[in-house]
Amino acid sequence: MFDPRVNGALVRSAFYRPPRKRTSDLFSADAECVFRCDGVEHPVLDLSASGFLFASPNGKIWNPGAEIEGQLIIHGEPVLDSKVRVARVQALATGSRVGVDAQQTIAVIDMLELDADRAFRAGLQAGPAAYANLLPKNYLDAVSSIKDFLLYYRPLLDREESRIRAKGDHERPLRDLVERSFETLDRRWRQLVTDASRAGWELRADPAAHHAAKRYTEATITPLLKGCPLIDRTWNKPLGYAGDYHVMEYYYRDEFEGPTAFDQIMHKLFVQNPMARGVVSRARFLVELMDAEHERLARSGTSEFAVANLGCGSGREVQIWAETTARRGPATWTLIDQEEEALAVAYQIGHKAIRGAERPAELKLLHLSFSKLLRHPEAFKFEDQNYIFSSGLFDYLRLDRAQTIAKALYDRLVPGGRLAIGNAIGPNTNFWPPEFVADWPILYRSKDDMEAMAALLPGSAEVDVVVEPGGAYYFLLVRKG
Q: Could you tell me if 368 and 420 are in contact, meaning their C-beta atoms sit under 8 angstroms apart?
């Protein structure tokens, strides 16, 4: 008999599929997770308890529904020896991507344990020289200077903080210590970061050296900064990725945060990195663009305005719009993100700002998995917009995916509407802290790279590339023809 009290749970269980994760996120760089079939090893791209996706070279034909014998291997050791069924095949210019369903459960936890054990043994045996020997002198010198900086100032500040606390009434004196010390260290730190960033940028063309630089830095520098809230958050990635909305809020607050004076100073130095400050300046820039679009529309006699923010995070743009722009008529905001918690925070911040400023506006929330969006750009199910922007998502998208998403967003514009897509600028002299210390890799793009994002747009589209006022991010600006 049908029971509505339990049917929903039963249906969800019946159609539940374990989430797949990229092997690059699951395992160490030396794990080399592959699927061996017919004597050929195919790199495994993502994995779950029920199946995996592997890359296959051109010329090999895979038939959906076929069963194939093979081994799933990590660190050269078979962890699954079984038949798998070909579920889907995606043909690409460089070969195929083949998704398979396993006929027995893949023990992902056991694979993680094996990887951790092998990584520990390898690290214990190799020592720091295994990475240092792969690095040029200018990078080693830059990291050494930063390590000296941290090892000198941390105990110095700790001793002074202890002395101040021992006197009793310490709140104001500690604040003075932090502010005074920050002013002294700021310029010195900026130069150290610039030197390390320049040396690190030269390594991007050599994957082995770049990997060694990251591991060496994470072993020698990152542990000295774990008390810094920003580094702790980006390194541990509690939501699965570094640049979550909590990190963005650190940037907007721009305060001294952390348990000790040293931690507070370092946190402030990180949130005042030009790339971090650019997050705030680009938000204001995007709101100014929106206001200009709203004004243009209002002059035509239409006061209502629809705007969508893809990858909204905490949605601070709504607050900036409500508190700083002229009143031009009602606006409907569609805020899109993959984190429900981020959407809840965005709604709270936006709703409070709209109500406080008495602005005629509506907030719509759209929870949308970015991984699903990449596979199915048609998932953009919202009304056509006057203005669409995305400030940070494209930092993570390879060019072909960026082009596809840009086209999908363009298609959601009304005629004459505007699209704004942001991406970090490369070459970059400030990228060392996120890239090497915080394990926060993104794609840095040139102006030509940004223009290439518009390759799938029709010839009638008006395309321009500009730099936001903070000088850290390019924006591809598109007018729908």
A: no
The domain made up of 17-126 has a fold known as Thrombin, subunit H (2.40.10)
* Contact in structure between 353 and 317 (CB atoms under 8 Å): no
Tokens of 282: 């680009």
Q: 96-117 pLDDT, tens per residue?
A: 999 999 989 999 999 999 999 9
Confidence of residue 187 (pLDDT cuts 50, 70, 90): very high
Among candidate residues 397, 446, 405, the one with its CA nearest the CA of residue 308: 405
For 276-479, the fitting CATH number among 3.40.50.150, 3.20.20.70, 1.10.260.40, 3.40.50.410 is 3.40.50.150
Helices (H), 166-228: 171-201, 207-220
**Which pLDDT score, from 0 to 100, does residue 18 have?**
58
Question: What pTM did the predictor assign?
Answer: 0.81
Residues 478, 392, 424, 262, CA torsion sign: positive
pLDDT tens figures, 375-401:
777 767 778 999 999 999 999 999 999
How many Cβ atoms sit within 10 Å of the Cβ of residue 171?
8
Structure tokens at 474: 């390019």
